[in-house]
Amino acid sequence: xxxxxxxxxxxxxxxxxxxxxxxxxxxxxxxxxxxxxxxxxxxxxxxxxxxxxxxxxxxxxxxxxxxxxxxxxxxxxxxxxxxxxxxxxxxxxxxxxxxxxxxxxxxxxxxxxxxxxxxxxxxxxxxxxxxxxxxxxxxxxxxxxxxxxxxxxxxxxxxxxxxxxxxxxxxxxxxxxxxxxxxxxxxxxxxxxxxxxx
Length: 198
Prior knowledge:
Blueprint: E1 16-22, E2 25-31, H1 43-55, E3 61-65, H2 71-80, E4 83-88, H3 91-104, E5 108-112, E6 123-128, H4 136-144, E7 150-161, H5 166-173, E8 177-185, E9 188-195
Parallel strand pairs: 3-4, 3-6, 4-5, 6-7
Antiparallel strand pairs: 1-2, 7-9, 8-9
Helix pairs in contact: 1-2
């Protein structure tokens, strides 16, 4: 079985278009087989984006890690006029992201990276809907290691389903962050974390 966090040369392509609107601004995303939430905007990602935008509308330097076909980073870039870096391990997802950056006319860059292996910059915001199906170890790697790529006053934003380990994962993060539950909706928890001062 192929997962959205794996690469497969044998997977056929069936491009589809997904329309989305927020703040009266329309978006169009190309999606395909072999990527996360291929037929519609994922509920958790949508809740994460709308929650973030109730707190931040100003321009920031943002990293969208595990970006899929680019929904989170592209919407935030357009709405807040931010430069966003989008990364994923899935090459097909990154190809779609690159198309979606052009289609939606946003200031973004996209490249393949396994978690932070290709990340060299420091960001105001790291935002993610982490790949739960990749396992708790990978999720904690993405969330815990965000602090090394955040400015001192930077923020990590993430969304996890209540029944997919939101509380246990967050308890682990509290060793390295001050974590606040910002929003609860439809079984999804949105958190904001700031790294602890040394």
